[in-house]
Write a structure and sequence with these properties.
Length: 227
């Protein structure tokens, strides 16, 4: 049972947890699929996205814009089309248009009254800057994949966060939607965690690969956590 008074810092995954990345991904892909006369079926497309993204992130580090290009090329290969140079460029920066979950700004503002807040995200600095504007809160620390040159579930991202935050690990609570990227490595490190189960009762795993992990607490959204 978590005791919330035991923590001084909340660290957050961003995409899928605070930013509605599945909506953003699908909105960015629809015009591409339509231009190539391919039907976009959301769940299989999101699951293929998750497979392609995690595979691309396992290789030598490259910025997230390059990861998105590789993902779109992979989706084209899978669904039978070849994306144009313009489509690849537009998709590579589509993160700037991905929406925040409606409850994210108010919940973050409420939580910031009691805790210091950090972002630990698989993203480029310039792309996160657009998302930060949508979240409407000033984070005390921002740790991106671009800064640490690796992608979660690498433990490097978390260890860098611990070093920068500079408080004992047992005073940090990690909050995330992805069992694969976040809760599983938190388990490995002995880091307390909250699973924000944004997908609820939807079938499948969406844009996040399947993983076995045990959060200390499960909530349906960020508003529930704040309450």
């Amino acid at each position: 049972m978590l005791r919330f008074d035991d923590f001084d810092v909340l660290t957050f995954d961003c995409y899928g947890t605070l930013i509605d990345w599945e909506t953003g991904i699908l909105d960015a892909l629809r015009p591409v699929f339509a231009a190539h006369r391919v039907d976009l079926v959301p769940e299989p497309t999101l699951e293929r996205y998750g497979e392609l993204e995690s595979a691309a992130e396992r290789g030598p580090y490259r910025e997230y814009k390059a990861i998105l290009r590789a993902v779109l090329e992979g989706l084209g290969s899978h669904f039978g089309f070849t994306p144009t140079a313009r489509e690849l460029e537009q998709f590579s920066t589509s993160v700037k248009d991905w929406p925040a979950f409606p409850d994210s700004p108010a919940a973050l503002q409420a939580l910031h009254k009691k805790y210091r807040l950090a972002i630990v995200s698989n993203i480029d600095d310039d792309l996160f800057a657009y998302s930060a504007q949508r979240l409407q809160v000033r984070f005390d620390w921002i740790i991106t994949a671009q800064q640490v040159k690796s992608y979660k579930p690498s433990l490097n991202n978390f260890r860098t966060a611990f070093d920068r935050i500079g408080v004992p690990q047992n005073r940090i609570l990690h909050v995330a939607q992805s069992l694969f990227h976040d809760i599983a490595p938190a388990n490995t490190l002995g880091l307390s965690s909250v699973w924000v189960n944004r997908r609820g009762k939807k079938e499948g795993s969406g844009a996040t690969p399947v993983a076995q992990a045990r959060p200390d607490l499960e909530v349906p959204d960020l508003s529930a956590l704040a309450k």
